[in-house]
Amino acid sequence: MQMKLELIPLPVSDVDRAIAFYADKLGFTKDVDVQPSDDIRIVQVTPEGSGCSVGFGTGLDVYAAEPGSVRGLHLVVEDLDEARAELVGRGVEVGEIHDFGGGVRGANFSDPDGNTFELQEMAWRRGATY
Q1: Is a pLDDT exceeding 80 seen at residue 130?
Q2: What digits encode the pLDDT tens for the residues 67-108?
Q3: Above 80 in pLDDT, residue 129?
Q4: In what helix (H) or strand (E) does residue 79 lie, and over which residues does it extend?
Q5: How far, in Å, CA of 95 to CA of 27, rounded?
Q6: Residue 99: phi, psi to the nearest 5?
Q7: Can you name the residues that pair with 40 across neighbouring β-strands?
Q8: Cα 129 from chain centre
Q9: Which parts of the chain are beta strand (E)?
Q10: What backbone torsions phi and psi does residue 75 show, to the nearest 5 degrees?
């Protein structure tokens, strides 16, 4: 049986601020931004090249967790130095690069609510294998 993880809900306190961070600062594509009723808003954004999106909004139980409570989502990049420099240039506060050993390096950052992410580079995933 094949299963594809395609959406991760993130709890945020301010939907418009989250859109500004994910779309403008991180460069994710805003795929969905709908408000089917006064109480419900659904937003979905996707990193370039990813088969998995993040979603946030209001009025649905899936968004009811404490804002900032999601930890350690990994964004795999081919070149960590380049990705980190680009995000820093866009105003994202990205931590220093750490070497985890075995050809894995990473650098972390968080969204405005404190949900955390790890940029991750794996030495064996370059070029055609990325």
Answers
A1: no
A2: 999 999 999 999 999 999 999 999 999 999 999 999 999 999
A3: no
A4: none
A5: 18
A6: -100, 115
A7: 37
A8: 22
A9: 7-9, 29-37, 40-46, 53-58, 73-76, 98-101, 104-110, 116-122
A10: -110, 105
